[in-house]
Design goal:
Rossmann fold, alpha/beta, 36% helix, 14 helices
């Protein structure tokens, strides 16, 4: 019998081989495809469990795991874990949320934010399709303005928002931000505003960089979209549920939003979402309109970022487990 602590790993997490090797060096690893394969007998003495997005780690599952000490997720937020239930049971939830020093070395979300902005503003997908259709003409693809003649508004100027702010300054854009937790602008040439309403009224492009909480859910609703500049743009690489879907669709259809580019959808973490994604209202709209670009939550998806975040989460689990054993 192995003396190593038992850990559940799910293949859907797609850890790279050296990170799998690190797991197997330190844990007795149970490998399953996804949480639908959880077996009560195997769960009994599991000490550490990974928690993949798309499956809610609730109190009922925790109670099936009486030896559980740690739930680990290599994500920056944990909407898929019942943190209150974990705390009640003395279970440590490990994620990347508070790993600020480490996260400052992980830049792909900010990079995709800028890529989405350029993709939407310059209608890159449409231009590419026209070439494939045998057309070689620039005239259908004139962007409304140069980015350097547009204002950028950031909702949240934490780790990712700060990087995007630097990109905006480098592109010559006037940059504003709204963040009640950051008084002094962290980037030279960036200005703070006092309300969301003021921010969206000043901004040609609004980019979201905040966590999903009870306070931020559906924060971007019909009332707020009414305050947007006519013909402005929205970029969302945060969480889909921050934006009310019906309100966003109405803003796109009315022209209040000239366009949007998003990497997230409001119900993407619900089990079975992949089977119904084509029926999502925003996906149906994008299928017949050029002013909405959607990518499948790829913001953090570079091979090196995957590797680093996986390894960091494993090491944090080992550190926490060592503390518990000492205690």
């Amino acid at each position: 019998m192995s003396s190593k602590p038992k850990l559940i790993y799910y293949r859907m997490l797609n850890f790279q081989q050296d990170n799998m090797d690190l797991l197997k060096e330190n844990f007795d690893v149970i490998v399953l495809d996804d949480p639908t394969q959880d077996d009560d007998i195997e769960l009994l003495d599991v000490v550490v469990s990974f928690a993949p997005l798309g499956f809610y780690f609730n109190a009922e599952k925790m109670d099936r795991m009486p030896a559980l000490r740690i739930i680990a997720s290599n994500t920056t937020s944990v909407p898929h874990i019942d943190e209150a239930a974990a705390k009640e049971r003395g279970i440590k939830v490990i994620s990347l949320r508070e790993e600020l020093a480490f996260l400052r070395t992980i830049t792909p979300t900010a990079e995709l934010t800028w890529g989405l902005m350029l993709t939407m503003m310059r209608n890159i997908p449409g231009a590419f399709r026209s070439v494939l259709d045998g057309q070689w003409s620039r005239w259908p693809f004139g962007a409304p303005r140069m980015l350097s003649r547009m204002t950028l508004g950031l909702v949240g100027i934490g780790r990712i928002g700060e990087i995007v702010a630097r990109y905006g300054v480098a592109f010559g854009m006037p940059v504003y931000y709204y963040d009640p937790y950051v008084e002094i602008p962290p980037v030279e040439g960036v200005s703070k505003v006092d309300s969301l309403e003021e921010l969206v009224s000043l901004s040609d492009v609004v980019s979201l960089h905040l966590h999903l909480t009870d306070e931020t859910r559906n924060l971007f609703n019909a009332a707020l979209f009414d305050k947007f500049r006519e013909g402005s743009y929205l970029i969302n690489t945060s969480r889909g549920a921050i934006v009310e879907t019906a309100a966003m669709l109405a803003a796109l259809e009315s022209g209040r939003l000239a366009g949007a580019a998003i990497d997230v959808l409001d119900d993407e973490f619900e089990q079975g979402f992949n089977k119904s994604v084509k029926e999502h209202p925003l996906v149906r709209y994008a299928a017949t309109h050029d002013n909405l670009v959607i990518t499948p939550h790829i913001a953090g998806s570079t091979v090196d970022a995957w590797h680093l975040t996986q390894k960091h989460t494993i090491k944090r689990a080992l550190e926490e487990l060592a503390k518990m054993e000492v205690a």
